[in-house]
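Before relying on records like the one below, remember that each one covers exactly one chain. Contacts with other chains, cofactors or solvent are not represented anywhere in the record.
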Amino acid sequence: FRATCRPTGCAFATPSLDPGAAHPGQARVAMAPLADGDSGGGNAAAGGRPLLLESPSGDSLMQRFPSEQSTSTYPDDHSGPPTPDEQDAAVHRRRKSKDISSAAAAALEETEESSDYESRVELLSHQTQPRSYYYEFTDESCDDTSCRREVPLLRRGRKTRKQLQQRVENLVQELQRRKTVFQARQRDLAHSMNEKLKTRWISNQEKIVRRSRQMTDKLQTGRARAWRHKCVFALVQLDFMLSFFWLGRSPETFYIYYSAQMALVMGCKVLDYRMKAQHYFLLDFCFFANACALTWLWLFPRWGALYNACEGVCGLLAISIVMFRNSCVPHDFVRISNAYVHYPVVICLLSLRMQCSGDHCIGMEAGRSMVWSERLWGAFAAYFSWATVYSSVIFIFARNRIEHKQRDTLYKYFALTLGYQEALPKWLRPYSQCLFMCGHATLFCSGVGWLFLPFWGQVIAAILGMAAFFHNGGRFYVDHFWKAYERNTATYVDAAYSVMSKEENGLPPPTPTAADGKSRVDGPMDATISGDSNPSVTNGGG
C-alpha cells in the first residue's frame, strides 16, 4: 500500500486489495477525520478509523488498520523485496480486511434500494460509528487546497432528533402566531374600512336628503311654479295645434298620434301619483278605457267585440267631462291631464269611424254587424270586468293598507271629500261602498247608448262635451282674475285707509316699496292659479 495522510484523512494507492480481483488497478478511498489527539504526520489510519474503499471493479471494502500500524507498508525509497516479517504482517492485514469487507457487504445487502454512494456511506457509518462526519471521496493527487469537502447539515443521534423536533415545533408555533396576528390585522382593517364606508354612505344619504329638500323648496316657490306653468301651457297649446292639423289631414292615422299622446300622459300621471302617494287612482275606469282602446288599436284590430267595448266606454267618458267639470286650464298639469284621460279616446274613435283603413275597418264592420244584444254584452262585459277588479282591490285586498296609510281613492273623494256619505240616511251609510259602485254603474248605463248613436249624433255629443271642457276652463280663469282683482282692491283700500288714519293722527305715512306692490298683486295669484293648492282635483268620472 502507498498512503498519503493529512490532518483530514488518508488516501491510499494499491495494485489490488483483493488478490483474486480480475481487474487489478488503482483504488480510491474515502477520507475520514482523525480522532481527537491523533497526529496527522505519518499515521495512515490512527485510532482505527473506518475507510470505504472502491476498487475499479466496483467492490466496496471497509478497511480498519490497527493503531500501531506504521505510516506506510513500504517506505517511499524501498526497492528491495519484503522481509518475511513484512510478508506475515501483510497476510494478517489482508485476512482482517476480508472479515471486515464481508460484514460491510452483508450490511449493504440489507439496503438494496439505496445503491448510490452517499447511502452506502451513511449505512456503514451508522453501523461502525454513529456520530462520524463524512465527506466526499478524493484520491492521492489532491492537496490541502484542492480537496473539496461536503459539510454535513446535521449531527446524527437522538439528541439531534429532539433538537430537530423542538425546532420544527417552534417554527410551527411561530407560524401560528404570525397567522393569528395577520388575521387580527385583517379584521381590524376590514372593520375600519366598513366604518369608513358606512360613514361615507350616511354622509352621502344626508347630502341627497338635504339637496332634495332644497330642490323641493325651490320648486314650491312662486317663481318655480310660474316657470312650470309656462312650460305646461306651451306644451298644451302645441298639442292642440298638432291634434287639429293631424285630425284634418289624415284622420285614418290619427290613432298613431293618440297612442303617443297617451304614452306621455300616462307616464306623467304614474310619476305624479307615485310622488303624491295617490297611485290607487290608476285603477280608475278612465285608465282602463284607454288601455282597452290601445289594445284594440294595436293588438286585436279585427276583434269586433273589443271594438264594441271600446265604443261603449266613450259615452261614460263624454259624460264625465260635463259632470265632473273637466276644464281647459293649459297651465295646470293636474287639471289638463284629468281632461286628457277622457276626451282624446272619443276623438280617436270618431276619426276612425269617419275614415278608416286596413284591419281597423274590418274590426269596426265586424262589431257593428252584431245584433244589439251582443254589442251591449261586449260593452257590459268589459265594464263588469273592471268593476270586479276595482272593488276587490279597493274594498277587500288593499282595504287595511289604504286605511292605515291614509291613501286617497276615488271612493274616498266622493264619500268623504265631497260629503256624499254624510248626505245619506244613517241606515244606508254602512253600505256606502255598494252605493258608490251602483252609482258608477248607473253612469255607465246612461252612456252606453253611445253604441247606437249614428255618426252625426256622436259628433254632436263630442262637440257638446268639448264645449263644456272649454267653458269650464274659461270660468276658471275669469273666476281667478275676478277674485284676484277683488283681493287686490281690498288690499289697496286697506292700505289707503291706514295712511289716512295716520295723517289724521299726525304720523308720517309709510313709504311704499316695489316688493309690497308685488306681494299685493302677485301673491294671491300664485296661491290660487296653481292646481297643486286645490286638493279636490281628481279624475272626475274616471
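The mean pLDDT is 76.
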